[in-house]
Design goal:
Shape: elongated
Family: Belongs to the nonaspanin (TM9SF) (TC 9.A.2) family.
Low-confidence stretches: 1-35, 312-316
InterPro entries: EMP70 (IPR004240)
Number of helices: 15
Largest sheet: 4 strands, mixed
Order of helices and strands: HEEHEEHEEEEEEEEEEEHHHHHHHHHHHH
Mean pLDDT: 83
Radius of gyration: 30 Å
Subcellular location: Membrane
GO biological process, one term: vacuolar transport
Transmembrane segments: 275-297, 340-363, 375-395, 407-432, 444-466, 497-520, 526-554, 566-585, 597-626
Helix content: 40-55%
Structural class: alpha+beta
Length: 636
């Protein structure tokens, strides 16, 4: 029987879809959340300046020395507090989990009213806290302020394209080469760009801050004050330090509209590199597709024709992959764990796919802080139904009889491991007094979502999956397992998995750099069109690599394809972890044990989930391939 292939009509449809996806990929800035309405101000209206956690950035050596963030109102910084104490702003679940701690401030900004040399407050920073602040300055920590949802930024120039862009955040201080005590920034020149809607209303479309270090001396009875001090502000540990915090505000008209105000923040990534990444991935896919097509169109087609030949004069003994037809559908060892992994892989696949589609359609805006994390968490919980359904159905198809056992394993295995690692990371954040430590109320809320929504959905899915008709094999399974001959070295488990994993990793490693750069350096990631295409390429590459190696194993009379398809596809997670190690030595220089635990703890979680996702994709592709080829041959 000849296998079906894409005909001209379907090929044209596929090309049309690909062209449409490429067009969407280029619309990098068209993702604004429709539900966020612009805020119109009138002349003199109060404009709130909110403060967020201080986050680490690159130091003078272009290295990241810490991944710990600190609350703006941490007592060791001694920043000015507003009257009545700081009030916390409303934050989403994802924003809190991502480490945002947003509060009001004592800055007074009024629409279109410039101000010069305004004293915020005068603080005494004890000598015992000076080393802590100086250490954060030398580690490149940044202020993070927000005005009308826009982050305060500094103008920087991209090295490759020499293009100007807004870099989120500005330095806590600065240091010069060979300087023992760094400068502390205590004066801020705030430039707010506004767009005129009509003769009465105005909108904020940009925020720039230029920090300065000034050892300003204010006198109580002086009628006018000056911020023209030339001596920089240094915090010495030998004595207390009198610090005067000052600021100036300037309003500048801009032609930018409110709808495009984020464009200036989103030019840090060179699009040519992304296109190179996409072309690189596409070449790998075409190479694998050509190999797979060669096998399916020539070798496999000839095998099926020969196996189904009715010529009795040329009867010969079975050989190749037909020889193991009686064992290829034998249930694997520890199939209950395989069923759980497959169900969790389905859950992750639908979560990632739905999140990317929502982001691609423009419903995840950077102005809605934490929306991406919130969407991923909620979708993961909702798709617990898929995890239970597919786990139970696979388990029952393999001959499993205990529904209760598979339900417990599905609800606790992957989520439980990730939750344990997250608690370890959170304990390290708490021990380091970092603001990124999730509060107890947030953790309780996540637990409630898990137990109240996710687990019931998983149980319901398992019930329906277990009741669904099982997948019966197309050929009869022998009672006695066939002996497996000695395999060549390149088809043994470790070499074959390493070969399969490197091809999958090669299709995504450039995009992986941008994602890690965005996470650890607190950059805004926005190219969801490219990310969606890379995900599609990842799925196709993983499926093709696994099918190829599964076919080679069957031709070598090795029918143990179930687990092998999982770790052959999932081996790319090992390369992702190794890339994380390379990224650590090339871009990071973490000084504290807590930072090391946090970085490698998150890398472990990501690689575990990546293994589950790709392993499930590989298994499903191999299973469909095997059922198709064995249902196409005649078995006596």
């Amino acid at each position: 029987m000849r296998l079906d292939i894409l005909n001209g009509r379907w090929r044209a449809t596929a090309l049309s879809i690909a062209a449409g996806l490429l067009a969407l990929a280029q619309q990098s800035s068209a993702f604004y959340l429709p539900g966020i309405a612009p805020h119109d101000y009138k002349f003199g209206d109060k404009v709130d300046l909110l403060v967020n956690s201080l986050t680490p950035s690159l130091n003078a050596d272009n290295k990241l020395e810490s991944v710990l963030s600190y609350n703006y109102y941490d007592e060791r910084f001694h920043f000015c507090r507003p009257e009545g104490g700081p009030k916390a702003a409303h934050e989403s679940l994802g924003s809190i989990l991502f480490g945002d701690r947003i509060y009001g401030s004592g800055f007074k900004l009024n629409m279109l009213k410039d101000s010069s040399c305004q004293m915020l407050c005068k603080q005494t920073i004890p000598g015992k806290d000076a080393p802590f602040i100086n250490d954060k300055i030398m580690k490149g920590y940044n202020y993070n302020w927000l005005i009308d949802g826009l982050p305060a930024a500094m103008i920087k120039i991209e090295d490759r394209t020499q293009q100007k862009f807004y870099s989120v955040g500005f330095g806590l201080g600065s240091e010069e080469l060979g300087q023992e005590v760094p400068y502390f920034h205590n004066h801020y020149d705030i430039t707010v760009q506004y767009h005129t809607v009509d003769s009465v209303h105005y909108r904020v479309v940009g925020v720039l801050v230029t920090p300065q270090s000034k050892n300003t001396k204010f006198e109580k009875d002086a009628p006018a004050q000056s911020c023209d001090a030339t001596e920089p502000m240094k915090l010495t540990p030998k004595s207390d330090n009198e610090v005067v915090f000052t600021y100036s505000v300037k309003w500048v008209m801009s032609d930018k509209s409110w709808a495009t105000r984020w464009d200036q923040y989103l030019q840090a990534i060179d699009p040519k590199i992304h296109w190179f990444s996409l072309i690189n991935s596409a070449v790998i896919v075409m190479f694998l597709s050509a190999m797979l097509g060669l096998i399916l169109m020539r070798a496999l087609h000839k095998d099926i024709a020969r196996y189904n030949a009715d010529d009795t004069e040329d009867l010969q003994e079975d050989f190749g992959w037909k020889l193991v037809h009686g064992d290829v559908f034998r249930p694997p060892q520890s199939f209950q764990y395989l069923s759980v992994l497959l169900g969790s892989g389905y859950q992750l696949f639908w979560m990632v796919l739905t999140t990317l589609v929502i982001a691609l359609l423009g419903f995840l805006s950077p102005s809605s802080r934490g929306s991406l994390t919130t969407a991923m968490l909620l979708l993961y919980i909702i798709f617990g139904f898929s995890a239970g359904f597919n786990s139970a159905h696979t388990y029952h198809s393999f001959g499993g009889k205990s529904l209760k056992r598979i339900v417990i394993m599905t609800t606790l295995f992957v989520p439980g491991v990730c939750w344990t690692l997250l608690m370890l990371i959170n304990l390290c954040l708490m021990a380091a007094n970092s603001s990124a430590a999730a509060p107890a109320g947030t953790l309780f809320g996540v637990m409630a979502l898990w137990f109240v929504i996710s687990i019931p959905l998983t149980i319901a899915g398992a019930y329906f999956g277990y009741k669904r008709k099982t997948l019966d094999p197309p050929v009869r399974v022998n009672q006695i397992p066939r002996q497996i001959p000695e395999q060549p070295w390149y088809l043994r488990p470790i070499p074959s998995a390493l070969m399969g994993g490197v091809l999958t990793f090669g299709a995504i490693f450039i995009e992986l750099y941008f994602i890690m750069n965005s996470i650890w350096f607190h950059k805004v990631y926005y190219v969801f069109g490219f990310l969606f295409l890379v995900f599609v390429i990842l799925v196709v590459t993983t499926a093709e690599v696994t099918v190829l190696l599964t076919y080679f194993h069957l031709c070598s009379e090795d029918y143990r394809w179930h687990w092998r398809s999982v770790y052959t596809a999932g081996a790319s997670a090992l390369y992702v972890f190794l890339y994380g190690v390379f990224f650590y030595f090339s871009r990071l220089r973490l000084a504290s044990f807590a930072s090391l635990v946090i970085y490698f703890g998150w890398m472990t979680i990501v690689c575990l989930l990546f293994f589950v996702l790709t392993g499930a994709i590989g298994f499903v592709a191999s299973h469909l391939f095997i059922r198709r080829i064995y249902s196409a041959i005649k078995i006596d």
